[in-house]
Amino acid sequence: MPDLVCLGEPMIEFNRQPALADGRVLWLEGHGGDTSNCAIAAARQGASAGYLTAIGADPFGESLMRLWAAEGVDARAVIRRADAPTGIYFVTHSERRHEFTFARAGSAASRMTAGEIPEAYIAAATIFETSAISQAISASAGEAVLHAMALAKKHGVTIAYDTNLRLRLWPLDKARPAIEAACRRADIVFTSDEEAKTLWGEADPRAVAAMLLGWGAAVAVVKQGGQGALVATRSVATAIPGHAVNAIDATGAGDTFAGAFLARRLAGDDEFTAARYANAAAALKTTDYGAVRAIPRPAAVMKLLRAAGSHA
Question: Which of 42, 146, 173, 309 could tie 263 with a disulfide, CB 3.0–4.6 Å?
Fold first, then answer.
């Protein structure tokens, strides 16, 4: 059984590329979904990772099964549905940001229920990870997330939660209490200064971390994009500086951070050493297009850390 189990919705990605000289636009097909990205990022760093989800019995679902097999992500518990499709999303880019367009309504993952969560699979893990997106895709999926978190708590499994906020999936007045409820159940919470400002009206990383720790988290990670991240426990808060890279696509960077961080924690690193490693991995992820293709492996991460005078 895998040491890290992630729960959520995987998707097929179409990432818009720069226009050709004749004006044609090409779309790079790939894979995405925040918790799937997290599992793959962890596996690429050497962790034992598995995934819980439902996908369509369609060519896109087959593509995801091949991806997980190639990446060494355990997919034995993945549900295949003949009556629902695999979700899809499209990524477009501007000078300042990347934007998403989703085609996921009625997807196989959105039909997940609490009764489909395999208790034994979670119970055997060391860390369980999920996200706000996993909650937001449907009411039944939201119930499944909280049920899975309860199972993890029951069996003494560390719970990691990412506040990934997507207001296209649910309104803020619905997202805020659901995300807070999940944060209060988690041992490790990943958020960002931008998300925290939207959710709680507070962007100062230390204030956000203090709030999350007050809700019960043992570790709070507040990501700040290219500026790095703040990592806090109940006794220490440390700012992790960013890395200067040629960033062209931030899709999946936060997921890469989470997966790399959890992989290094499983390997025995403390929170701050794990965060330095994860921060470098996330920076490298932004240097190419696609949520998965540019997730780095340890050699590249260590090279960047050495160049920056850091170590993992």
Answer: 42
